[in-house]
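A common beginner's mistake is to predict each chain separately and then try to dock the pieces by hand. The better habit, illustrated here, is to supply every component at once so that their relative placement is modeled jointly.
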Amino acid sequence: MFQQYSLTHVQFMIEGLGWTVFLAAVALVGGSIAGAVLTLMRVSSNSFISRAAQFYIFVMQGTPLLVTLFIAYFGAAYLGLATNPLMAIAVAFSFYAAAFLGDIWRGAIQSVPAGQREGAHALGLSRTHSMYYIIVPQAIRIATPPTVGFFVQLIKNTSLTSIVGFTELTRTAQIVSNATFKPLEVYLTAALLYFLVCFPLSLFSRRLERRLAT
Amino acid sequence: MNYLDFSGVLSRSDLLIKGVLLTAQISLIAMSFALVIAIVAAVLTLSPNRLIRLPVLGYVEAIRNTPFIVQVFLIYFGLPALGLRLSPMAAAILAMSIYGGAYCSEIVRAGIQGIPKGQIEAGRALGMSPYLIFRHISMKPAIAAVFPSLVAQFILLLLSSSVVSAISVPELTGTGNDIQGLTMRNMEIYMVIAVIYVALVAALKGSMTILERVLFPFKFLGR
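With all components supplied together, the output reads:
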């Protein structure tokens, strides 16, 4: 009646892991683009623009990702667009990632010592040039460890797409669990697969952080 | 494009209120348990004994590097295979506590490590008992120092409670799913739910700011 839990099932789950990593990568790229815009808005001298970005971050960080996913999913249909699950998921994750990356990167830009900006100003660099040549290169160094850490969060959070029916690792685990009725073994396998991807990244992030501190 | 119609959703506000209360309830319970787990785990990870330190570090890393929903499924669907069958509510609270505890323990540990050694030595010199030193010199200033990070983690814990709708706990998101099934107004219901979550987060942030002033008045001296 039930299938035997076998290597074929694990293979199926590893394929799901591929989709998990793919989704996280899409979210990172989409979130980076929107997050960069948001960061610039946040550090803008125009208080309306910076307030708007702040409000966006506040709302996005105050909404569970699952609810954001539902809104993107049903929102596409509501706007009369054909609901392509992958598209809706990519949009939701990009909006979500942008809010967190925008926050992380603003912190990095603001933690570049003020003397750097003043020095660039004294040398006659324009605001744009001092941003591009002086501030951002130093901010990237500061922002890298938390950005890698957030990528780990993204990988883990793609598991929520299983609820809207996308076949990534968690969904494949559900399918295998239903077929074999071995939930403990199957979900432990899924957890192990996530761990094998996330733990090295976490260690990498921590090492970068330590190197920065010294 | 259709127009938005909130009447079907708002006429079921009694269900929504029940969902909000359940979300608040499981979140607050999980936060308390998570803080207790975090303090115990943080103290244990600072133990000089490897046999104590390593298993606790293993717990923290295992939880931090796997998705919350998989942990929920492991507890709700996996534990019965070991003879432990939990109700959805109990499984949700257990999963959230274990999850929050791992993240908070890192924060609490950073706080304890930030306490200058000289202060503990001073406590000893004054003849304070180990318990009094732990409570007043290590723990209280440590928690006070990292309180904002703990609040940020509590907010993430509150938001993560939406995931337990997947094991049919009728909290806010689960209630939203039910109302969506009744009204077919999917866009409206999730917009309302999102607004409620944002309000809950704002309320939690506000009350934690007040709590910080009450619990740690020494942080605000001379400001």
